């Protein structure tokens, strides 16, 4: 009988852990959905940059956010659009994703 009670206790603990993880996953999913809806809302690029630096950072609970755009030449029209926007030279994103490693072609890169 003690063996069965012990097993039942372990099963109940496992059940509680699974339920807690499910609620945590739902909360994370809802947070991402709110963030995506905020990204779809701005009517212009400057408004999107404002959203990135304000509301979206708060929703995702992060301190800093950057939008990195690659440009093969200087882009004076993009200068002064806010602190969240960074202009990088062409190839910067590929170098950043590779992290100094030689990567074979992949359809998806997980970070």
From TrEMBL:
<dbReference type="InterPro" id="IPR029016">
    <property type="entry name" value="GAF-like_dom_sf"/>
</dbReference>
<protein>
    <submittedName>
        <fullName>DUF484 domain-containing protein</fullName>
    </submittedName>
</protein>
């Amino acid at each position: 009988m003690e063996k069965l009670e012990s097993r039942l206790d372990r099963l109940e603990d496992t059940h509680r852990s699974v339920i807690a993880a499910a609620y945590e996953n739902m909360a994370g999913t809802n947070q991402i959905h709110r963030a995506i809806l905020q990204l779809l809302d701005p009517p212009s690029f400057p408004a999107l940059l404002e959203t990135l630096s304000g509301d979206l950072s708060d929703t995702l609970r992060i301190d800093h956010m950057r939008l990195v755009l690659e440009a093969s030449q200087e882009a004076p029209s993009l200068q002064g659009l806010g602190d969240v926007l960074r202009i990088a030279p062409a190839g910067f994103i590929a170098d950043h994703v590779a992290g100094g490693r030689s990567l074979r072609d992949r359809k998806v890169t997980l970070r």
